[in-house]
Amino acid sequence: MKPNILLIAYTIQLFIVRAIDVLPIEILFDVLFIQETNSVIYQASDDFNYRYSTLDTQGIITGTYSLNGIQDIQQNTRYFIIDNLLYLHYYWGVEYHTIDLNKMIAGQQGYLQTISYPTAAKPCDQPIRNEITHIVLDNQLFMNGNTYQILISFVNSINIVLVNMQYNLYLIEDYLTQVQTTNLIFQDIKSVKLNNPNHIDQLLISDISIITAYDYQIKAFRYFNVQNLTELQSTGEILPFVDYQTFLQHENIILIGTSQYTLTYISSLNKVIITKSPNTSQNSYTLRYYHIIYYAFSYVYQGSTQYLLNIKQFLNITCPPQFVLDSSKTNCICRPNSILQNQSCPCNTQYIDISGDCLPCPLYCNTCSSQITCSLCQTGYLLTVNGTCVSTCPLNFIQDLTKTNCICRLNSTLLNFQCPCNTGYIDVNDGCQQCPLNCDVCTSQAVCSQCSQNYYLTVQGTCVAACPQTFISDSTSKICVCGPNRTLQNQSCPCNTQYFDSNGNCLPCPQYCNTCSSQTICSLCQSGFLLAIDGTCVSTCPLTFIQDLTKTNCVCRLNSTLLNLQCPCNAGYIDVNGECQSCPSNCDVCTSQSVCSQCSQNYYLTVQGTCVSACPQTFIPDSTSKICVCGPNRTLQNQSCPCNTQYFDSNGNCLPCPQYCNTCSSQTICSLCQTGFLLAIDGTCVSTCPLTFIQDLTKTNCVCRLNSTLLNLQCPCNAGYIDVNGDCQSCPSNCDVCTSQSVCSQCSQNYYLTVQGTCVSACPQTFIPDSTSKICVCGSNRTLQNSQCPCNTGYIDVNSNCQQCPQSCDVCRSQSACSQCSQNYYLTVQGTCVSVCPQTFIPDSTSKICVCDSNRILLNQSCPCNTQYFDSNGNCLHCPQYCNTCTSQTICSVCQTGYLLTIDGTCVSTCPLNFIQDLTKTNCVCRLNSTLLNSQCPCNTGYIDLNGDCQSCPSNCDVCTSQAACSQCSQNYYLTVQQTCVSSCPQTFITDSTSKKCVCGANRTQKNNLCPCNSSYVDINGVCQPCSSNCIQCTSQTQCTVCQQNFYLTTDMTCVATCPLTFVVNANQTQCICDINRTLTNNKCPCSSGFIEINNICKQCPQNCNICSSQKTCTVCQAGYYLTVDDFCIQTCPLTFVGDSTKTKCVCDINRTLTNNLCLCNATFIEVGGICQPCPDLIFQKSI
Fold it and tell me: What's the superkingdom here (predicted)?
């Protein structure tokens, strides 16, 4: 079936079609690919007209233009492009066409021109696939409207074919040749002989253009780097170009016939490695032509029909498992919601692989085993037993130790997805607390209602193996009940009246007793009797006892307490004639009514036998004995408490004296030290006197050392003394202050200090006394050096007086003869000092003497120049090297034989770079096409230095970096990113009048020699229009593909800050995707199959159900399941039911009718063995 042809008839000269409606397109006859502009010229099958289509790097048509006027494009049609002007040449044609690409793309008229060849000119006839062919006439080359003189060094008969225009590479006869074209001369630079070449092709490997040519002499293909014409080694397979007319290249893959080859270029080894692999194309198209540079589209045929086809459609690229094709359908990328790891694409966290797709796990889940069952929740969420993720565990569940799972609370067991408490435990505040010991069922943690086996329930709700005393076990009810002679009262079984419990038996009480605790101890007597303290019943109370107010018990007398069956007086009382009388005030125990022996609480006993709340001064209370005792650091003496030795009284407190002090008046001032310690001047006690002090004769105090006086608590030495190892030793004679016993620093009155530190009454020779400082100082014009006073520099000692040397002289032999001049002065032969040496002399910086120059000789106190030198302002300078005659050190006028005079006046054996010999072979002059400037010969404007010659730059170029790359164009021309010069910038570029360059237009940025629109813009008819709000990448102003940060792409290709209801943000935080258990349908997210929406949440339908009306009611089951009458889904219909004709529902079997969800046999039928059989005659079915 022929493809749908979407090209419409031409109504205007320029039109553009959408690429998605064009490829593959049916065409007629041959097609011409234009590699420089990634375009194609072809004849359409619908109207038989020729068209020019531009394509992007993915082989998508971006624009189509009419070429009405072109009659025939053949397989051997040749082309080339200069200044955006496309030249089309035909095999043996008489005319050629030019297409102004700028005008055509801009929609201007007149872009197609037809031009006749010059007389007798002809195109070359040697075919090289879709490459440029120039026109040759005799020994001239017609190219770009110009005629070039051909100067080829190795052949006479000329056949020229252009192989690569960027590097001026041509096939000239059997030679692959690199040429230069300057001054309208076509001349070879470098060539390689190919020996009867054939099958010449150009490949692109690792961005390096490589020429392949079959050499029939060696019967093998040879490979050459187009940039430098270097031959490359090849290893591995041999490409079978000889056996096939055409081939296809995609990136580094070569398709020839049914084979596929991979090419690898190793630049460091200058080698091409060729490996063979199976052809991955599954397409039935047959390859015919190809595109050299981009390899993005191809001309193929299928049967007798021809097509222009996107090469990616031909290759039919398929991806390995876990990979998918990208949007361009050219590269395998990881499937959605996955990440590349070790050459595979496992699903991202929060997704699961189901049939090769990464589908979302349940909400808040990181790892899951199905879309409804999670195995590991996200951080902050907990995994429940039914595989869901929650922020808080359900009732009766708790977090495990890892805080990732919900497990049954302690002392409970999982049952039907719940955690009821274990036997023997009760639910208390959502926790299982233990029942009383040995209890199976309890009503609280303290009260049991049913005991474990072999245990009995007490009245307190506890469980015991043996009932408590006074109770007996009831084997039927498993409860403890009261024993004989007992009655239950307040959860106990006391004995009846006049009985008491004895080892669990109720025995009779003593005589006259109603209630007792033993047979001898009564607790309540019968009427008319009194209960004595010993538990007997008496008619009269014993001694120290009296009747109580009820007249039923004997109690202690007043102010007494029971003790050992007696009633002694209470604390604070004393027995006086059988009655308890009070002790003194605040006294608990007394020996008489006036003398206390033990005071009451919060009172203390004084030495006088009284009780006080606060002890007298110098006494303190003893909390243990409750007696007033001496305070800390005090001792009792005559009923008072003075401070102990080594303490002093300070406002009633005994504070310690200073360390090692016996007697003191304060904590810092001692008056008498302890034995073995000395009293220092500051009132402290020390074991050794401080520095500058010594012991006194009593060896109890520290006093000043000899020859010193107390000053500010120190004992400095007296005047005329110095401290030497702690002793005050005398200074030198006549010295008041000294630094040592031999060196004085201040002399006594009428004495002067010498530099040796002694004191003299008269200063030594060369010194004089200074009356102010009292020091011996140097005399006039003298300076102290090494304890002496020699004359200063520039002076000489004459009879002990320092007389001045000659002017500018530091050292002199006499007052008129100098031997060493001052700095910046030089000694002349006359013994004087001068700052500038006399004419013909020069200064010697080492000796500071005026000497003859190295090129002069001393003669009669002058220094004339030597031979081969010239005098320059008094200096003898050498002429330049190899110079016979000169006027200065740099300018020669005549060179020696065999040397040439340069423009800067030097002599050289060979002219410098950019210069050549003149006709006399004695001078150097500028090379051709150059001009002298600053002693150099730079190439003229429009020329570039190549190997020392000035070669012409590209057309309309003033400054270039190579013959093919311009850096500054001529006036009215602009520099393109390809470093060519054009009068009009290409599409998407604009002219910069300042830099004279083609720069990107508004809202565009240069990338890979193109100017695509900036982020947030889209190209619409050549203008970058803004994308929709909050969008950074779009395909139109309304169709966004990537949103700004914090905005999310919706299904209608807009950007929102918050996803709509039923949508959530995806894991990459870029898109709105359907919430869990929802599926995208018509830009909405209804609940997925098997789920129903309840309060905006998709709840799961009953098991095996596709559509339901509630979580318990199914309406349509999954495939392979039947809907029952009670709205559930089962694989096999129950007995009496069968599947309906649609195999989706269970309906009543034959001869049955549904009644109350049952399928009962119809009337006149009876059920036999599960089948409804007709009733026999005279037998009727029972009523229903």
Answer: Eukaryota
The DSSP 8-state label assigned to residue 293 in this structure reads: S
The 10s digit of each residue's pLDDT in 863-920 is: 876 766 777 887 778 888 888 778 888 888 888 888 998 988 889 999 998 888 888 8
Distance of CA 753 to the CA centre of its chain: 77
According to CATH, the topology of domain 435-494 is 2.10.220
Write down the CATH number for the domain with range 731-790: 2.10.220.10
Q: What is the DSSP string of 1015-1048?
A: TTEEEETTEEEE-STTEEEESSSS-EEEEPTT-E
Lowest mean per-residue pLDDT among 27-36, 631-640, 1101-1110: 27-36
Q: Could you please report the per-residue DSSP string of 790-823?
A: PBPTTEEEETTEEEE-STTEEEESSSS-EEEEPT
Per DSSP bridges, beta strands 112-116 and 95-100 are: antiparallel
Nearest-angstrom CA–CA distance, 795 and 781: 8
- Say if residues 463 and 455 touch (Cβ distance below 8 Å): yes
Cα separation of 167 and 178, whole Å?
A: 7
Summarised one tens digit per residue, pLDDT across range 763-821 is 888 888 988 889 999 988 888 888 888 888 888 888 878 888 898 898 888 888 888 99
The class level of CATH for 944-1000 reads mainly beta
The more confident residue out of 205 and 976 is: 976
The 10 Å Cβ neighbour count of residue 226 is 20
Neighbours of 386 (CB within 10 A): 11
How would you classify the pairing of strands 185-193 and 146-151? parallel
The CATH label, of 3.40.640.10, 2.10.220.10, 3.40.50.300, 3.90.550.10, for the domain at 333-408 is 2.10.220.10
Look at residue 1122 in the predicted model and tell me its pLDDT: 92
As a whole number of angstroms, the distance between CA 896 and CA 885 comes to 9
Q: In what order do the strands lie in the sheet with 175-182?
A: 122-123, 135-137, 140-143, 146-151, 185-193, 175-182, 169-172, 160-164
C-beta of residue 202 within 8 angstroms of C-beta of residue 164: yes
Q: Report pTM.
A: 0.29
Cross-strand pairs, 31? 42
What is the rounded distance in angstroms from the CA atom of residue 651 to the CA atom of residue 636?
Answer: 19
> Do residues 661 and 672 lie in contact, with contact meaning Cβ atoms separated by under 8 Å?
yes
Report the DSSP pairing between strands 661-664 and 653-656: unpaired
